[in-house]
């Protein structure tokens, strides 16, 4: 394994871990600020990655995507919360749901901001390998992964965060039916991720992610990264 390959995987890991951890912590913190102590009592308001690891979403799925050279995204173990603590359940669900993608957007902006701040130094050349890997690999991947996670989680498919937006906009009389079909949502997501690209010459999730996350990353960065 070459030095560049090792650096690639290390950059992916060090970018991915804080992206998913802070995503989940933000969900729990938003619920806590709305009066729900469930996540805090469960020990999920911590940046310790071990508290948030989901075997498939945090390890297997990102590894499969890396090996397939597809956009790297995934998910952590969902943070528990109890909407009964919220004064307005639907609004509380929406705020908690959007907190995770919002955290990813902030981290993406931080990564792009660092790239702009360090651009004059990078333009002088890379006499230091560590700085070159940080600037040319880590910062782009950190920004891209956070944007991928944000747009992936905004898909209106339970248990992804976008479902809270969909539920908020849905007329209340249709909510019971919507909650009943949620049990089929995860299999449908897995079909979109793995079965559809295998059967058809199109990968709708990758197209969606590359169009929105890739184009936004290039708008934010001082150089083209995707």
Please tell me about this protein's structure.
The structure is a single chain. The protein is mostly helical and 226 residues long. Helices cover 69% and strands 0% of the residues. The protein contains 9 helices and no strands. α4 (89-123) packs antiparallel against α5. The two termini are 24 Å apart.
Task: Please estimate the helix content.
Answer: 55-70%
Number of helices: 9
Q: What percent strand?
A: under 5%
Q: What is the β-strand count? A: 0
Overall form: globular
Uncertain ranges: none
List its salient traits.
226 residues; mainly alpha; 9 helices; 0% strand; globular
Write the layout of secondary structure elements.
Layout: H1 3-33, H2 38-41, H3 55-67, H4 89-123, H5 129-153, H6 162-169, H7 175-181, H8 185-199, H9 204-220
Helix pairs in contact: 1-4, 1-5, 4-5, 4-6, 5-9
What is the compact description of this entry?
This protein has nine helices and no strands. With 226 residues, the chain is mainly alpha-helical. The model has no long low-confidence stretch (mean pLDDT 87).
């Amino acid at each position: 394994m070459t030095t560049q390959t090792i650096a690639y995987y290390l950059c992916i890991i060090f970018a991915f871990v804080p992206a998913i951890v802070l995503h989940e912590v933000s969900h729990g913190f938003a619920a806590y600020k709305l009066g729900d102590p469930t996540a805090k009592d469960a020990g999920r308001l911590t940046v310790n990655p071990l508290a948030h690891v989901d075997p498939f979403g945090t390890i297997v799925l990102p590894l499969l995507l890396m090996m397939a050279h597809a956009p790297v995204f995934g998910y952590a173990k969902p943070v528990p919360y109890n909407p009964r603590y919220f004064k307005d359940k639907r609004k509380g669900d929406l705020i908690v749901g959007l907190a995770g993608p919002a955290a990813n957007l902030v981290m993406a902006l931080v990564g792009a901001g660092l790239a702009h701040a360090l651009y004059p130094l990078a333009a002088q050349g890379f006499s230091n390998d560590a700085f070159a890997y940080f600037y040319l690999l880590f910062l782009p991947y950190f920004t891209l992964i956070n944007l991928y996670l944000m747009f992936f989680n905004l898909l209106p498919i339970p248990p992804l965060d976008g479902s809270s937006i969909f539920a908020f906009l849905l007329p209340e009389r249709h909510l019971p039916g919507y909650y009943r079909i949620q049990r089929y949502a995860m299999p449908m997501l897995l079909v979109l991720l793995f079965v559809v690209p295998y059967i058809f010459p199109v990968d709708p999730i990758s197209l969606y992610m590359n169009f929105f996350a890739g184009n936004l990353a290039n708008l934010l960065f001082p150089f083209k990264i995707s």
